[in-house]
Amino acid sequence: MNNAAQKIAQEKEKFNTKPERGPWVITLQQHVYLPFMEYCSNSELRENVWFAYNTRASLKDEHLSNSAIIEEIRFQRKDQAMLLGFKSFAEMSMETKMAGSIDNVLSMIASLKVKSIPAAQKELSALQEFAIARGFDRTLESWDVAYWRRKQKNATYKVDDEELRQYFPLPKVLNGLFQLCNELFGIKVKPADGVAEVWDKDVQFYEVYDENSKHIASFYLDPYCRPSEKMSGSWVESARNRSDACDSLPLAYLVCNLAPPVLNNPALMSFEEVRILFHEFGHALQHMLTTMPYSDVAGLSNVEWDAIEICSTFMENWIYDRQTMNYISSHVDSGACLPDDTLENLRKVRRHLAGYDMSKQLYLSDVDLQLYSSKEFWLDMQRRKWAEYLTLPIYKKDAHLCAFTHIFSDEYPAAYYSYKWSEMLSSDIFSAFQEVDLTDRIAVAAVGKRFRDTFLSLGGGCHPGEVFRRFRGRDPSPDALLKTYALH
Questions:
Q1: For 31-80, what is the HEC assignment?
Q2: Average pLDDT over residues 319-346
Q3: 258 close to 224: Cβ distance less than 8 angstroms
Q4: 276-305 as b/e: b if 16+ CB within 10 A
Q5: Cα–Cα distance, 38 to 144 (Å, whole number)
Q6: pLDDT at 2 over 70
Q7: DSSP 3-state assignment of 361?
Q8: In this predicted model, what pLDDT tens digit does every residue of 34-82 receive, in sequence order?
C-alpha cells in the first residue's frame, strides 16, 4: 500500500505542471512560436524551436520539401511574363505598381539600407552588452534576439502592456478615433443601431456624414472574438462600392478580435490593438470617402498594390500624437489620459531596434525581386543576400524561404517591397502635418482636407504617383521614414 501511495504521489507530481518546467508542446504556428521566442528563458530550447521554424518545408524528402516547387513557380512565372513580352516576372509585376520599375524599388531599398544596416549593427552590439550584463555568456544568435529585445525594452522604457490596457476602453478609443476623423476630414460618424440587420448582438452599425450632414457611407463594426465562428485577426472588407449609376453608397465591414467585456466593464484594448484599429480604419476611410462615381475604381478598387497600405499606415501615426492620445485614452478607473512620459516611452519603443527590423524587411524585399528577375538557385541567393543585409550569421540548414508563402502566393510575389514602399509614402504624408505643427489644429485640418481630396477621394481612378504629387507637390522621399525611426 505504501509503494502504491508513493507511486500515485509521484504520478501526481509528474503532471503538476509549472510554467518553468512544463511539460509543454510547442507548435510552429506564429501565435505560439513568436511568444515562445520572446518569453522562453532557455537559449537551447529557443535554438531548437528556431531551427524547426526556419527549416519548415525543406526536408530532404521531396514530398515534404518546397525547394523544387519554388524553382517551378519561378520558372512558370518567368514563362508567363515572357509570353506577354516582359524580360522577367518582376518586370511584369512593376507594370501594375506605383513604383513603375525595378530600378525605382532598388533605389528606395538602397537609400534605406545605407542608414539601417549601421544602425542595426549598433543596436545588436548594445543588445549583446545588455545580455552579458545580465548573465548571458555567449554571442547573440538569431534565436536570442526576441528574448533579449523584450528584456531590454522593458528595462529601458518600463512600458507595462497590461497597465497600458487600462487606458484604452473600447468606447473611448472609438469616440476618439471618430473625433480625430471629424477634425481631419470634416466627417461625422454616428451610431445607427437598428437601421440595419446584424449577425451578432455585439455587432454595431454606423453611418458616415460629410460636413453638410449628407449621408455618404456606412459600416459594420464586429469588435469581439468568437472563436467558434470567426477567424483570428483584424480586417476591412468592402460590402458595397460607391456607384453613381446604381445610386449606391459605400458599405464596409470592420472586423476585430478583441476580448469581450466582462460583466458591466468596457472591453479594454492593448496599445497594439489600438494601432491595428487605426490601421484598419484607414482602409475603411479610403473605401468610404471616395468620390469616384464608378465602382470599378471607387475606394480600394483598382488601387496599385504597393499603394494599398498608404492610408492605413498613415492613420497609425496619429496614436503617437499628444492631442489624439487625449481623445482616445481614459483610465478605466480614474478617467485620466495617458501621461506624457508614458507616451514618450511609447514613441521610443517604436524606434527600438528599428535598424534591425528595417534591414530584415529590406532583405526580404530584395530577395523577392531577385527571385523573379534572375536564374540563381533560391538557396544560394538567400545566403548571398542575407550576408549583404543582416549582421547575424545564417546557418547551413536555414531555409526560411521554403515557408515564406508571402512571395509565392496571393498578391506579393515580386511585390513584397510594397510594405516598405507604402510606409515610406505614409511617413512622407504625415510629415506634411508635422510641418504645419501638430498643435495648430486649424492648420492640421487644412492639410487633412487636402489628404481627403487626394488619397481618400481618388481611389483607383488616378495613378498614386500623381495623387502623391497633388498632395505633396513633389515626388516621395525616404527622409521622413528614416526620421520616424531615428535612422536619419
A1: HHHHHHHHHCCCHHHHHHHHHHHHCCCECCCHHHECHHHHHHHHHHHHHH
A2: 97
A3: yes
A4: bbbbbbbbbbbbbbbbbebbebbbbbebbb
A5: 8
A6: no
A7: helix
A8: 999 999 999 999 999 999 999 999 977 778 899 999 999 999 999 999 9
Query: SS3 for 120?
Result: helix
* Per-residue pLDDT reduced to its tens digit, 398-433: 999 999 999 998 889 999 999 999 999 999 999 999
Q: Which of 280, 309, 316, 423 is catalytic?
A: 280
pLDDT of residue 14: 53
Q: Give the confidence band of 187 by pLDDT, cuts at 50, 70, 90.
A: very high
Phi, psi of 193 (to 5 degrees): -60, 135
Mark residue 136 as left, alpha or beta (left: phi above 0; alpha: psi -120 to 50; beta: remaining): beta
* CB within 8 Å of 314: residues ≥ 6 apart: 282, 426, 429, 430, 451, 455
Find the largest Cα–Cα distance for the chain: 88
Q: Which three cell numbers stand for residue 335?
A: 478617467
- Tell me if 303 sits within 8 A of 283, measured CB to CB: no
Q: 525595378: which residue's cell?
A: 102
Cell of 165: 490596457
Give the predicted TM-score (pTM) of the model.
0.93
DSSP letter assigned to residue 360? H
Q: Give the separation between CA 349 and CA 153, rounded to whole angstroms.
A: 7
Q: Of the candidates 254, 222, 224, 256, which has an alpha carbon nearest to the alpha carbon of residue 238?
A: 254
The contacts of residue 194 (CB under 8 Å, 6+ apart) are 205
415: Cβ–Cβ under 8 A, 6 or more apart, which residues? 93, 97, 305, 306, 368
E strands in 123-211? 188-191, 204-209
Up-side HSE of residue 156: CA atoms within 13 Å toward CB?
20
Cell of 178: 471618430
User: How far from each other are the two terminal CA atoms of the chain, in whole angstroms?
Assistant: 74
User: What does the block give as the cell for 90?
Assistant: 518582376
Segment 135-162, tens digit of pLDDT: 999 999 999 999 999 999 999 999 999 9
Grid cell in block for residue 330: 481614459
Three-class DSSP category at 150: helix
Element holding 487 (H helix, E strand): none
Q: Are 175 and 186 in contact (CB under 8 A)?
A: no
Q: What is the CA radius of gyration of the chain?
A: 25
Is there a contact between 147 and 41 (Cβ–Cβ < 8 Å)? yes
pLDDT at 323 over 70: yes
Angle at 146 between CA 140 and CA 152, to 5 degrees: 85
Distance, CA of 236 to CA of 257 (rounded, Å) = 12
Please state, in angstroms and rounded to a whole number, the distance separating the CA atoms of residues 366 and 107: 11
C-alpha cell at 296: 470599378
Give the helix/strand (H/E) hosting 304.
none
**Catalytic residue at 280?**
yes
